[in-house]
């Protein structure tokens, strides 16, 4: 059995890897002064670039979906200590994200480009998206979500943003990914594939939440929209 101190050190190390990769991702998506970003770097031939980028994003999506499922967690915690399960998920996710940041192939053909006030508005929306995503983690339990505190059985709750949409974290990511004054083919590929993953992922997550919370979550789904504020709740 791994000791509490060792589990805490492992959790903190995993969190630090996540934090660094997350901060770089914000700069990567926005092309904010980093040597390698979604639109900056050595370009390859179009076909290989698409295949590599799709493979990178696909690996990230599969890992996120598989490792988050309760059935996988039950099998996984027979191999590793339960106290390290969430930290391991965070660490593997972060390492795959770093792989994307490292191996991404820019495809810089312009889809749209705006300047002036429209550009400022889109940039602001992107930053609002990152803020919504970060705030959403604190509204539930940031430390538990990222493996610094062991998960506890708690009653179902819907703080603040969770009363507007069921998945504010994912709404924040969607805003951050799509709101850009300069959309390139590579950025569009990234945003489209991540959107597809999010739409599949939230449905898988909701299936688990219905199993966990039953009628309480079903009523929440009927009352609160999934991702678009102001709409009626939907499945």
Brief description of this entry?
This protein has 235 residues and is mostly helical.
What are the main properties of this structure?
mainly alpha, single chain, two-stranded antiparallel sheet, 235 residues
Please state the overall shape, judged from the principal axes of the Cα atoms: globular
Radius of gyration: 19 Å
Helix content bin = 55-70%
Poorly predicted regions are none
How many helices? The count is: 9
Sheet-strand content, in percent, reads: under 5%
| Tally of discrete structural domains | 1
Structural class: mainly alpha
Distance between the termini: 41 Å
Largest sheet: 2 strands, antiparallel
Order of helices and strands: HHHHEHHHEHH
What does this structure look like?
The mean pLDDT is 89. The longest helix is centred in the last third of the chain and has 29 residues, at 185-213. By secondary structure, the protein is mainly α. It has one domain. The chain has helices at 4-30, 46-67, 70-76, 85-103, 117-140, 142-145, 168-178, 185-213, 215-223, and strands at 110-113, 182-184.
